[in-house]
Structures are given as C-alpha cells and as structure tokens.
Amino acid sequence: MIFFPSLTPETAPLFVILAKGEFPRKILPLAILRRASEHPEGTIVCCDGAIQNLLDYGAEPDAVVGDLDSFTASRHILPAEKLHRIDEQDTNDLTKTVTFSAETYSPREVCLLGTSGRREDHFVGNLAHLPGYTRFFEKIVMPTDYGCFLAFNGEARIEVERGRQISIFSFSGSAVTAEGLKWPLRNTTLPELWCGTLNEAVSDTIYLSSAAPLVVFVADEVKNR
Predict the structure, then answer these.
(1) Which of 144, 159, 180 corresponds to the end of one domain?
(2) What sections of the protein cross the membrane (predicted)?
(3) How far does CA 38 lie from the centroid of its chain?
C-alpha cells in the first residue's frame, strides 16, 4: 500500500518537476522547491517555459526540457548538457518533461510544481494527464495554492487532518473504496468526475483503493467541527 504522509517540505519528494504555469507563491511549495535545490539528493527538472522564473528565484535546474522556444537570455547561462530539446508537438510540455524524467532519472515519487495558474485550460490538461503519469511514478504530489493533488495506482493510505475537505477523481469511472471519510465509498462507481467531490476527512488517515489510477485533492481548508 502506498503511503502519503502529511505534506511538508521534509516529506515532499526530492524530485521536482517545474511546469510553466504560475510560479509557486505559497510558503509550502516554495519550501519544497528550495529543499530540492539545496539537498544533495534533490533534482529539479524544468519545462523550458519556466526556466527564467526558476533562475530569478535563485535556483538552477538539473535539466531543462522542451522545444526550447521559450528560451531567451537563459540559454546562455546554462551548460549545453542541461538542455534537452524535444520538438514533437503531440504532447504538452509537462508530459515531455515527465517522460524525460522517468526515462532519465527513474524516480519513484515526484512533486509537480507550477502546474496551475495563467491558463485554466492548461491546468485542466495537466490534471487530466495525472492518471497516465502513474505508470511512471508510484507517488505523484501536485501542490497548488489551495491544497494538493495526489495521484497513484492501486491502494493508498493518506495522512490528513480531520476536517480536511477531500475530493476523489476517477477518470476511468472505475469503482472506488474509500474509508475515513464523512461519506465513505464501498466499491462505488464514480461515473462522472464530480461524483467523488466535496467529501470530508473524519479520521487522521484515509484509505483508498481502485482498480484504476485515482487522483485525490486534499484541500488546505479545514471545516470547523
């Protein structure tokens, strides 16, 4: 069973992929990014459209992936071996970077930052890709300004604070079992994406399982009890 501890800079994956959405602003994602940049085992792989923001923040990527059409002056201050051009246009930049990361580094778990903001359609596309990314990674953590998306395949145990608002997304429509929630699920089919939303943790641990990948949103909001 996959375990997701309560997200902190210390429990977050040290392998970070930075997308070209809005650069992190909240304390937690910034701390995760800083730790990945400073830790000897940390790795940052950056979509090419996000590189200037990362450099302005004061961190340097281990690799930059994309068609490199977003490069300006950034290109001249990074060694060539860090630049990885992928010209194909059949997938988005995040998927190019995810695939490169899986094939080059093979991390077991990954944190995706900068996936939301700027363009809502890009964010929806990034979100829809998460189930497919579980074939590369055992654990996917994707913090936003309002909470964190978790993606996995199979069974998971998630550490949460009681009262946290929880939403479960089954993109395949497969049956889901969920315990530790105000409205538990017992091998319940979720035919539409909205069907598993707006639940609430009534325990400090929730358990989920499904025959297909699941995406779970743990909101920062804690409902008054």
Answers:
(1) 144
(2) none
(3) 20
